Amino acid sequence: xxLICSAILKIDNFPVTPQIVGHVCKFLxxxxxxxxxxxxxxxxxxxxxxxxxxxxxxxxxxxNDTSILEVIDKLxxxxxxxxxxxxxxxSLNLPPVDISIFxxxxxxxxxxxxxxxxxxxxxxxxxxxxxxxxxxxxxxxLEFDGHSFPRLAGTIFPKLLSLNRxxxxxxxxxxxxxxxxxxxxxxxxxxxxxxxxxxxDRLEGKAQLDWKFPTFPKLKxxxxxxxxxxxxxxxxxxxxxxxxxEYNVCFPVVExxxxxxxxxxxxxxxxxxxxxxxxxxIDLEGMRWNNVAHYAEMxxxxxxxxxxxxxSVRKILDxxxxxxxxxxxxxxxxxM
Length: 336
Known about the structure:
By secondary structure, this protein is α/β, with parallel strands linked by helices. The chain contains nine helices and twelve strands. Helix 2 (18-25) packs parallel to helix 4 and helix 3 (30-36) runs antiparallel to helix 4. This is F-box domain-containing protein.
């Protein structure tokens, strides 16, 4: 492939359109696409969109002149996939920066944000929020590595109407992070978050928290990791009413359930007759092992609830059985 590309690139005025160049670049490596941009204006025009689609641009937002100039230069390239690194170095005693000098990207498809605690409140974080806000009409994937995303609640989350995938790592160190769940747009097709937080001052003396999940009519995959301190986990079955899960209302087309915390809340109550044919795969972790018979009965019910996910349900049941056998052997060996 490289030999062919090198031969093509040596031909002057190669009679192809930018559309053909773009199609050819789908099969090339990133280094070859960069070479294509050097052939001519037409080749540059046709190959640049493919280069943007295949690469992720790192924007290190910090407070020094070199970083600012570098970020401005990269923003002018109008990247499609962006990694925002927000770094606020307190040792740099620099004057305020006018955020308006930074050009905004208008066709961004994915943004991954990494913050350090507290940095989202300083200049780099404000610039990062502005970048996300400008990209909101076209943004399809948004991922946060940290607990700073609640700062976007109320302003940016409702604007993410094109968002397909949302990943929230370490949802918050306080319960204030839970509030943004109700603002996540209904267009979402994948929701992936992990939980690790402390109870905040507003809930002092309360050992458990109530969670509320809005309706996601297009959601295909939901993944929850971590340890949810929970009192009641409610699902929106009617406007502003939250109760036990009803899949035909809450997640009517969901196909994959990976629930590693409060898994039992995602199993319909025994007195509810629900058949969820859309679900193809289930992975439930974090179940309590102190009542094997109870959970074995629950898993057996899942064969009827999720008829098209029998293989994954059977695997969960096998894991429970193996755990029970190991636990029994350990007890027997202990008494010996």
